[in-house]
Specification:
The complex is a heterodimer. By secondary structure, chain A is an all-beta fold. Chain A contains no helices and 11 strands. In chain A, the strands form 2 sheets. In chain A, strands 2, 4, 5, 9, 10 and 11 form a 6-stranded mixed beta sheet that branches. A 5-stranded antiparallel beta sheet of chain A has the order 1-3-8-7-6, with no helix packed on it. In chain A, a hairpin with a 3-residue loop joins strand 7 and strand 8. Chain B is globular. The chains are: A mainly beta, B mainly beta.
Chain lengths: ~110, ~120
Amino acid sequence: EDQVTQSPEALRLQEGESSSLNCSYTVSGLRGLFWYRQDPGKGPEFLFTLYSAGEEKEKERLKATLTKKESFLHITAPKPEDSATYLCAVHGSSNTGKLIFGQGTTLQVKP
Amino acid sequence: DSGVTQTPKHLITATGQRVTLRCSPRSGDLSVYWYQQSLDQGLQFLIQYYNGEERAKGNILERFSAQQFPDLHSELNLSSLELGDSALYFCASSVGLAGAPSSYNEQFFGPGTRLTVL
């Protein structure tokens, strides 16, 4: 069964304190792993797509990496405005556009 | 701003009623997806349309239905509403159908409709 698990559920950081969020996935034939940022009451905002193990992508203080079993979202020197829920998703094995989401990691960055 | 629009932003209704949620995809996108987000279930895929045709179904209840019109906008119809249907409903769109890995299959989400059933 296709599955996405994110950890930790919640993460509190001081401003400037770097850390990583984990996304473990089980799917037959990965067709893309997606990271989204979601602010409370808003729609998920697209961040990155990773397609193959070893791939990395960066955007400002965020860097996403991918292995054959998991992805990491590294946050370097976070700022309070980075506070949000970060969602990881994969396309299911059914060769459709269905995205399977993890439960998310809620990040709080304190000044 | 993702370019995906959804109306209304908020909807408050009573049990047993029927509502329609509307979505306009990004310009040029042919696929439209509907997702439901509740506190206990997270984001759950409901249904996908591509260029007017249904392409995939998820855990969508029989009381729910959707369609995509020739101008590519989509509507999600929810009927015989129950308290448990209260949730955020998101529409997303992509250029492609989703098959081979491609940036054409990246999904961009709208701001959502918050449905409250009393």
